[in-house]
Amino acid sequence: MNILGSTGLPVSALCVGTSPLASMPGLYGYAVSEERAVATVTAVLANQKINFIDTSNGYGEEGSAEKRIGLALDGKGLPPGVVLATKVDPDPRTGDFSGRRVRASLEESLSRLGLDRVQLLHLHDPERISFAAATAPGGPVEALAELKQEGLAEHLGVAGGPVGLMRQYLDTGVFEVVLTHNRYTLLDRSAADLFRDAHERGIGVLNAAPYGGGMLANEKQQRYAYGARDDRIAAAARAMRTAAARTGVPLAAAALQFSLRAPFIDSTVVGVSSPARVAETVALAETPIPDSLWAELDSLVPPSSLWLDPR
């Protein structure tokens, strides 16, 4: 177990992301039934090597990911030692991301999950609102601070994409945890400095989407980082897959362990869509990887001009 920054929360190096459990075939290319989703959460809760679950108000229609987690919890609350993080999202109909909406978002989440509080609450994808509006009186940042004071959220985080924006939010002093996605992978190191600096400041660091939206786990994946792929990024991924194959290592194992071995990352968020994927993810985390492969993979990283946050 790792301690999540200064929060004191003990979290496993692997965190299960539940976005796939919301069944969003438009994003992932496949549907997930309610039965399968509940079985997946049940498998996570039974796994001795994972104690950390990540979800969001906005995952799926009417918060379907949270609803399915709630069904798995069955009104019994979180088992001892399990940490759950969720996120506040704008109103899906109006786009409202005011302080009032933030409070409503958490209320919806607690109702779906069957909980009276959460250990970690993130401001989700704040790039959907200006920083000035987010930090203004009556805005989402003020509302989050109030929810923490009221005990409805034990700790606050910010979860989004662009590293420059994440730095701005961390500099407010409100947030104890930072999460960003697709920006510390075998293909992209955009978040490396952000993560190192946050770790040194005692801020918890969560790295999501270590497979680059699937490209590093599935060679047939036609998308990268939830969007259209660049052929040069795809070529780098193919070269990395070839290098890994020469050592008998699945590229997915190297992609996952690239994040797990970073001393400044407290937990790596990996989306799962079935009980089998839970077991497979643990196995990938434990796959032996020769030191020589890391050096070769480093030599194949695309230039920083191709990263999600170019340098």
Automatic annotation (TrEMBL):
<dbReference type="InterPro" id="IPR036812">
    <property type="entry name" value="NAD(P)_OxRdtase_dom_sf"/>
</dbReference>
<dbReference type="Pfam" id="PF00248">
    <property type="entry name" value="Aldo_ket_red"/>
</dbReference>
<dbReference type="InterPro" id="IPR023210">
    <property type="entry name" value="NADP_OxRdtase_dom"/>
</dbReference>
<dbReference type="GO" id="GO:0005829">
    <property type="term" value="C:cytosol"/>
</dbReference>
<dbReference type="GO" id="GO:0016491">
    <property type="term" value="F:oxidoreductase activity"/>
</dbReference>
<protein>
    <submittedName>
        <fullName>Oxidoreductase</fullName>
    </submittedName>
</protein>
<dbReference type="InterPro" id="IPR020471">
    <property type="entry name" value="AKR"/>
</dbReference>
<feature type="domain" description="NADP-dependent oxidoreductase">
    <location>
        <begin position="14"/>
        <end position="300"/>
    </location>
</feature>
